[in-house]
Amino acid sequence: MKERKLSDLDLLPDETVKKLEEKGIVTVEDFIYADPKYLSEVTGMSERDVEDIQEELRNIDVEFETLEKLERKRRRITTGSSALDEILGGGVPCGELTEFAGPFGSGKSQIVFQLCVNVQLPEEEGGLESKAIFIDTEGTVSPGRIKGMAEALGLDPGEALRNVFVTQVRSVEEQMRAAEEAHKLCEREDIGLVVIDSLTAHFRAEYSKLGDVSERQARLMKHVDQLRNLAMDHDVAVVFTNQVHVDIEAATKGKGRRYEPVGGTIVAHQATHRIMLRRAKGEVRIARIIDSPYLPQREAAFRITEEGIRDVEFPER
Ligand code: GTP
Ligand code: MG
User: In its UniProt record, which GO terms are filed under biological process (predicted)?
Assistant: First the structure.
């Protein structure tokens, strides 16, 4: 639930809110859980009045709404492939985290480039008519490619580039600061999508020794928390890519070469929806949902074409 500030409510006079803020009582929760006697001293109100207000605030604290309303509220961005949208439940969701993992060349970056363009489309075409933030950790973001994808959809290419805010980060530290800055940008601009390509590259490089693993995981967890808050506070889709490594356990058990996303269980549990990509023939790629609270484990095929992400066209029978 979003943090509510006392100053956002009409319940208390501005002057009283100011007095409370000076004592560090800023949110509704701060007020509800504070000692009434103390609040009475700070505000000059009677304890009785303070308790009444606390009671009132507790009552508006929890609101129920129907699942149907929740479903309708969930905004989504099309990937460009209706088959891929379908297994995602209608596109990439706002308010949640989505992870695309896969080996090099599997299409992770192409998908996030396409989303940066598609988020700009009008709603009836699968977009949100809003802008994107792109946190590039690998130096691979391509204005030329994004322009081409925009042109293919009839968007003005110059305008399309102006609607994507890019930052290139060179370390874990910078990446975490970028996520903080993204919060501020979401307040100023109409953002619908935040991309991190890739989530784990810097973490992997900076904490490569075996002894660093627990520290790496702790920071990665903190970073993923930042991203989750970003998604929830601003109702934006947060999409990140992830590299994979060979699952040693499966290999040693004779189950053959299997890939596993980097970051282990921390990323797995935090990522709302985890999609694994793999190459098929030519420009075809296969996406498979491997972890999600509500999406079934299904596969979809899509293509990476000159125009961008598209459906596979099956020959008519
Ligand atoms: P890494 O970042 O290296 O781990 O890979 P990735 O999963 O991000 O790969 P990416 O999304 O960059 O996909 C690369 C593939 O997309 C290439 O092998 C090409 O098949 C395809 N591709 C990239 N750019 C173009 C383009 O401009 N036109 C066409 N037709 N295909 C492209
Ligand atoms: Mg890439």
Answer: DNA recombination; DNA repair
